[in-house]
Amino acid sequence: MSSGCRSRALSVCLGLVALVTACSRRPNEANGGTVTPSQNAVTMEEDRRKNEAAIRDLVDRLVKAVRAKDLDGVMSAYAPDLVAFDIVPPLQYVSAESYKKPWRAVFELYEKPLQYEVRDLSITASDDVAFSHSLNLLTGTMKNGRKTDLWLRFTACYRKIDGKWLIAHLQASVPVDMGTGKALLDLKP
Predict the structure, then answer these.
(1) Which of 26, 65, 95, 124 has its CA 20 to 30 A from that of 76?
(2) CATH: 2.40.50.140, 3.40.50.2300, 3.10.450.50, 3.10.129.10. Which one for 36-183?
């Protein structure tokens, strides 16, 4: 390779390195357009906190909607392509639209007030995906007079869609006695 070719190749390589370096930095006016590793860590931590707070807000709105028996409010928490594994059949619900059916049934079964509580909520969030787990309590009186006090194990996966956090996947479960095959509905945290 001639020295001219080597010189052009070196210039192209240096240009690519500069481009990659520039694209991997966040602008920051106080630091001449670059971010130090410690500033980046602070920004990432702030972003994580904001995402977790937004998800807590989503969960709070969902709880309020359940208590109010507000089907539209409940459904507003779910992504259109939701996949839900709930405690009621079938094995899975694929789409938020299909997941209206069990919520409608719950609201028709219970008198007001319907109580719903989320306990020990733990959230892990990144920029556009997150997950949480909690123990959720559904308490109320059915229209037939029967009182319920049901604890569920709940895990949810979230996606940020158009800047808004939505539940993309969930699993609700209750423990089962493996010997009898019966759900253990009287357990408490």
Answers:
(1) 124
(2) 3.10.450.50
